[in-house]
Each structure stands twice: as C-alpha cells, then as structure tokens.
Amino acid sequence: MSEREDLVLAYRILAARGVVDAYGHVSLRTAKNPNRYLLARAMAPELVTADDILEFDLDSNPVKDTQVALYLERYIHGEIFKSRSEIKAVVHNHSPSVIPFGVTTVPLRPLFNTGAFIGEGVPTFEIRDFQESGDLIIKTPYLGHSLATTLGAKPAALMRGHGAVVVGESLMLAVVRSVYLELSAKLQMQAMLIAGPDANIVYLDDAEVAAISGRQAFAGTWKRTWDLWCIKARAQIEMEQRAKRPKASFPVKAGADRRRSRVG
Amino acid sequence: MSEREDLVLAYRILAARGVVDAYGHVSLRTAKNPNRYLLARAMAPELVTADDILEFDLDSNPVKDTQVALYLERYIHGEIFKSRSEIKAVVHNHSPSVIPFGVTTVPLRPLFNTGAFIGEGVPTFEIRDFQESGDLIIKTPYLGHSLATTLGAKPAALMRGHGAVVVGESLMLAVVRSVYLELSAKLQMQAMLIAGPDANIVYLDDAEVAAISGRQAFAGTWKRTWDLWCIKARAQIEMEQRAKRPKASFPVKAGADRRRSRVG
Amino acid sequence: MSEREDLVLAYRILAARGVVDAYGHVSLRTAKNPNRYLLARAMAPELVTADDILEFDLDSNPVKDTQVALYLERYIHGEIFKSRSEIKAVVHNHSPSVIPFGVTTVPLRPLFNTGAFIGEGVPTFEIRDFQESGDLIIKTPYLGHSLATTLGAKPAALMRGHGAVVVGESLMLAVVRSVYLELSAKLQMQAMLIAGPDANIVYLDDAEVAAISGRQAFAGTWKRTWDLWCIKARAQIEMEQRAKRPKASFPVKAGADRRRSRVG
Amino acid sequence: MSEREDLVLAYRILAARGVVDAYGHVSLRTAKNPNRYLLARAMAPELVTADDILEFDLDSNPVKDTQVALYLERYIHGEIFKSRSEIKAVVHNHSPSVIPFGVTTVPLRPLFNTGAFIGEGVPTFEIRDFQESGDLIIKTPYLGHSLATTLGAKPAALMRGHGAVVVGESLMLAVVRSVYLELSAKLQMQAMLIAGPDANIVYLDDAEVAAISGRQAFAGTWKRTWDLWCIKARAQIEMEQRAKRPKASFPVKAGADRRRSRVG
User: Fold this and answer.
1) Chain D contacts of A230, Cβ < 8 Å?
2) Beta strands in chain D (DSSP E)
C-alpha cells in the first residue's frame, strides 16, 4: 500500500519536473518479494493513482490477470531488475535535454555536485545493434535484456533517438537522478556554448566523482529534494481532488470521464 | 456537436502547449460531409468556444451567412482539404522553434521516436515563388493551393518567415504532430549546438521512419497524450467558468466583455 | 479615466509577457491634450493601478504637485512625444532577449510576419556618445532628447547595456511591438545558431517589410492579440482582488502593506 | 523577530526566482550583535518558516543547543561574515546559468545596468587548490575561510562545479544580486552566441561600473524589485495557509506531515 503511494508520487514528480510528458514510466521492486515490481498500467504519468499500479514478475507479466492496457516497454524494467539485484527502481523517460546527447557522439559528463553520478558513466544504447526492424521501442524481453547489458553497472543509459533509462538503489535515487540528468545535460550544452570549439571545460575528475557520487546515493543529500517534491506532489493531488468535488457542468465524454474519475 | 467540442479542445491544447499564441488556427473536416470543414471565427485560440465554430465549404466560404470576422488565411484549410482527401484536420501555427528552420536552408530532420513523422519530409513553402506583393499571408485560394502543392503528401510544411502547416488523418494526429514538431525543432537546435560544425548527428534513418511513423499515425501511441491534454483543457475551461460566476467588480468595457462571456 | 485603465492593462500585459520585470514603464499621450502624457509613479509594473497614474507635461514635469517618487527616466517619454507627434505611446523595457543584441554589432532583423516592423530599422543608442559620466540612465532631458534623436522615425531603438525603447501610434501598437521584439530577438538567435557562421538566413526583404509593417500598424492584425492579453490581465486583477478580501493573518509591514492595498 | 521574517522572505524569493532549488541558503547578520547570524536549519528554501531560523556564532556553531539537522556548508556564511565586517547577508546557491561559467575559463562580465556589480569582479573558487579529498562541499571552517579569501572584497564568487556565493551590505542586496547574476549569465551566453567566435561584445567599462554599481548598492534602485518580490512571497505564503485549512483527505506520512505543518 505504502509502496503504491510512493510510486504515485514518483510519477507525479517526474511529470511536474518535466522529465516525462505523457510517456515515460517508473517502477519499484517490491520489498517483500524481490522478484516482483510495481508499475502503472499504460497511461500518462500525471494521471496515475494508486488504483492504477499493477504488480509484475521479472518477465514483465502481470501477476494478476488484467484487461487494462500495459506499457509495451515494460521489459525495460523487468530485465534491469533481473540483471541488477541491488536496483530497486527504474525510470524510463524522454527527458528533453538528454535526447540531443543520445543522437551525438558527445558524452554526458559530470559538471557539478548534484550531477556527480554522471561520472560513473552514462553509455548510449544503439538499438540498431540489436535488431533490424527499424523500430525504436523496447517491446521484447530480448531488447530489454540488451538495454540492461548496455547499461551494465551504470546509473543511467541514453537510448539513441528515444530517451533514457535511469536506475537507483531506491525510488528516491532513481527519480532524483532523472531530474538532475536533465539539468546537467542542459548545463553541459551551455558550458559547451560558452567554452566554444576548444571546449575548455573542467568536468569533475575521477576522484571527485568517487568522493561524491557514492555518498550521495545513500546519505541524506537527496532527501531534502525528495521531501520537497513529495510535499508539492501531494498538494497538487489535493488541489485536483478539491477541484473535482463541485461537479463540472461542461459535458465530458464517457471514455475520458472514466479515466478522470481515477485522478482523485 | 461533438465535433465542435473536439475542435474547441484542439484550439485550447495548441494554446496551452505554446504552439499558437493569439494567432494560428485548427480545422476539422466534418464526418457527415467531406466537402465541409469546421473552423473558428477570427479569434484567439485560447478564447474559442463551441459557439465560435463555423462551417465552411472547400472554397472556404462559410456555409451560413455570418457577420463575424473570418480568418484571412482560411484558404490554407480549404485548399489542403481539397487536395488531400485522407486529411481530416489542418493546423496553421507560428510555432516558435519552427520559425528559425523556416528561414534557413537547414531542414528539420527526425531525431527521436515521437518526431518520426518528420522523416516523411517537411518541405518549406517560399511565398516569393508564387506572388510578388511582398505579403506573407495566405489570403487567396491561389496561395492556399500553392501551399497545398508544396505540402504535397507530407505531414507538415514550413512557411518561410511565417510559421507552419501540419496535417493529420485525424484531429488528434494534426494536434499531436504540431506539438512534437515544435519539440523536435528545439531538440534539433540543441543537437546541432553540441555536435558542433561537423554536426555528427544520428537522425532516424528511412527504415526507422517507415517502421515508426506510419504505425504512430493510426495506433494508440498518440492517444495517451491526446487524452491527457483533453483532460487538462477541460479542467482549464471549468476553472474559467468557476472564476466567472462571482461577478467581477473591475469595470470591463463592452467589447471585451461580450467576447469574454463566450469563454464559458 | 478610460485612458488610465488602458494604461494599467498595458503595464500588466508587459509584466505578464516577461517584457518588463520590476523595472520598465509605459506611457500614453492624452487624447484631449497632445502636450500631456500619462505614466505611473515610480513602481513595479505588476503593481500599478489607476490611482498610481500621473499626468506629465512634455518636459516630464508632473502637472499636479505630488510627493510620490517619479521614474528617473521619464524623460524618455517626454522627449520622444516632443519629437514624434504621431506617437501616442512609449515603452521602455529591459526585455531580456533584446539586451544581447544591444551589446553586439549584430543588428536585429525582421524574421517573420509579426516582427515585420523590425525591418523599418532598430538603431542602437550608445550613451557614451552623449555623456562621459559612466551612467546608463536617461535621467536628463538632454539624454532623453539624444535617445529620441537616435530613434528617429523608427519603431524601436536598443539602448546599449540597458534595454530598449519601443513606440507606437497607439498604446496597443507599442505594447504588441514590445512583445514581438522580444520574441523576434529570441528566434533570430536560434536562426543564427542553426545557420552557423555562414549565417544563410532569409530575412524579410524590403518589399515584405513595406507590405506588412505599415498595414499591421493600423489594421486589425494586432487587435486579436491585444484583446486576448487584456482579458487575461483583467482576470489576473480580479483574482488579486478576490485573494485580498479574506484578511491575511501573516503579519505584513506597514510600508509594503500600504503599497499592496493599492493593488486592487 | 522582524529579521527572521525578512529572512523567510529571502528564502522564498530565491526559490521563486529559480536561483535555488531544494539546496542553497541565505543568511543574515543580526543587527544587535555583529558576531551572530541567522540561517535556517537544513531544509529546502521553499519550506522555510520563521520557526526554522536558527542563530549561529561566527564559527558557525548554533548559539542554542538544537537537535535539528544543520547545513553542512554553514561555514560559507560564518567565514565570510568574519572576513567582511561590512557584509550583512550571504547567499549560497546552485544558480543554473552560473554553473557553466564556473567550469570554464570564460569570466562573467558586466553586460547591462542591473548587472553592473559583476564588473567589480566575480572570481572562481577552485576547491582543488585547497584540498585533495575530491569533495566539493564547503564542510569545514578551513574551506569556508578559503572561499572567503577567494571572494576577497568582491560581490560574488563562482564555485567550480558547484554554484556561487553572493554577498551584500544588506539582505536585499545579496538577494537581488543573486537573481541578477543568474540573468546576466544567461544574457552573456546569448551575447556570445550571436557575437560569434570573434565575440565583439561591448561590456560595461570601468567608468560605468564605478558610476553604477556603488550607487545601486545603497540607493533605492533595488528597492522596487525587492518590494515587489516580498509582496509576491507573502501572497504565496498566504495561499499556502489557506490551502492548508480544510484538512487534506489524502493520507500523508508522519515525517512529511510534520515538516509540512511548519509551512504555515
């Protein structure tokens, strides 16, 4: 129950910070069974409620029969959970500032304190190396496994022409890293712009990455951000609930209405 | 009736996503008569209500006599509907990130999954090739027809020094493409910035465009975005209605007031 | 009375569109006496109400004695009104995207339809040519007159290291031009970025500027934007008034409170 | 008491203007004892209330015993207050546009009127020159003193790979400078982009900096901005208080709730 509510907040936070739009999803491995993970049914992050969260096994099959539509790319989550036992949460997003780095050979590099984890390495997944269909979607266990292999032990991987995947030893860590990956990409672009073609930029060095990133993953550093965002996400949910109470007079169609009634 | 409400939502969504400001419009071919289309009277998208929607024939004449001002550029819609029987909706906008591409010889190219349709081609309409008046407005059937000819079978065309036109086999498709055309243009600028003058950027290749774009046009891919935006547009409309109920004490002038009373 | 309310809306619109922050001001020549103009007392645009509007003569002296602080740079308005009898409104702003053009030798050029007026010319005022004090503020009639001379018959002038001045044959025109000057500057930067060092950009040519700009100044083109912004500005004012009614429990200090009570 | 409320507003303003996110802090030297300063407990700026403000001595020890978590980097404040008796307030932030300048050798330079203080010099603090741990955090008096030494008599210093520190002879001055440092950095990037590699940019010269910056520090120039932001911050606080009154039905967890109840 609590895990589902945490996951709802994670969805809302990612949407509120612009890291996901109508696409993208975040999963949480269950505490009581490491071979299960929670993920929403196929829907926009901003609309997810606790009732929309489903439980999956690591082959990404729903544990209970369901008629609702599922994310085609849920294999991203299952295959990473299989290959990384320490990972508790996975975010897949189309984070805007990250996409341009995914389509160039310019690597994301660690630029500032809160983006130090980037220094552990952010490889790029090239789907053309694993299939010839021309599709970019991770819609099979094989592609999910291939992405997990490219990710290896890193905190994040770019997906060329598509987006990124970000993982964490906690839900908080996966979400906070997603947000700071976006910010760091934006700042790196700006540093490259002002430094010019010679690009004399002082990135964090290996000692700095080692000193900072590991500590941030477990210490209270991110908690301050996470707590703030949770408070704001809850306030947003409450506002939606209040707005819903006086029945709308504008006619809404059945399909949308049904989904909408699940917002509260 | 339902078509009019859908079109109102389309206007509101385009405004909320920053794809139109006070200018720009979106039309919908009617289901019962393919030789008719719906379009608002000349007004800002954010203010359009069902009462503001008029019906036009394909020569872009209003079907019923009316005293209200009409968009000078309604020929964009009529002439494209004439030349593309499969097209159900047309958006004309001054989408900000798209304008810079319209004035350079740098083509928009497909960069990521949700912008794959750009790979079908986005030609640029140069009005100087069709008239010598110096005006940039598509204010005659001839100019509308010329634009439709430049557009050809493509999903969108840039209009040099002006904006863009985006079409779809459904209203949803034309609106979603408009939003992702804007985003893709922004991301392409950023990719060009970080890739530098040598510009080593991996765009989607033809196989990828073929595999993705056609499927997206008809499958449920865009539905998730569309439903989200409709929910938000309806919430905005309801908020405006609530705000209106307690009569304002600030004196408003007659002209603005009349228009405003149509917001609800 | 009506002129004062129009001017309040102009202040609010400029703030809402990001063209002014706490600085910047807009003036309106009075209809009944062309040797008088209206301008707020020295205050942030977002807070201006009809009670804050004062009347000045063309030497920029307040017509009635007053104890309130006046804008040091009011001479911008008075001196331009003196030299340009057809001008009815003057905006001075620190419009962010315009400032970078003011400090380089790269001229603003007309890029798209709604920015066509830029093609009439936007000269840059270099205050170093007129004084040696090192100050950048137009705090004397002489500096105001010098700026008016640089402006000449143009619709706008940049002020190096400071901001811009924008004029119009109507209040609407000065405000709308201010907003589109900002947008056009932003888009020109982007066009320069994607076009690269060779900068092959197709700007509007003289025929286009001639065909478009003059017409826009007087036809209904801008009315659609203006009306939309006025509606939104009025809604904002009403929202502030409603928020004020239930007396705040948070202790506010006397000085701020007094100013605040004038918001409504 | 009044000092605490002023400091709360400063926290809120910095968050509202995007100069701090969940990190960053601002301190105020107490008027009655120049060897004391006020600073919040370790928490997100947006959530700070008067009850969260603690008093410290210049060694950055809390004057009263406390169980709450303290900012690890509070030495930034104490050491600068020690070395600069005229300074009354210190801001530490991760201001986004400033970070890229901190990692390049391109100096921030004064570009426009409200950023004139930058012309007094904004040095960059390279923590590698003072320790070998690889950490970037100012978590000892020694590092705080080193930063204060780099800052010298300047109004601000960048911290490589981290953020910035900004100081003022008043709380208002430190806050306003923080906001305009961010804006000026953004505009300088844009000026560099449009000026190109030859970078022919007219920065404020020494005479201009001398004429403007000193005057701005003490005259009423910044008061207009400060008053506006205080009014908006108070309105935001009042809105939060109103939103809190009808008890939320969404279950919130104890930890977050406790913190939240301190918002009002």
Assistant:
1) 256
2) 25-29, 36-40, 53-57, 89-93, 124-125, 156-159, 163-168
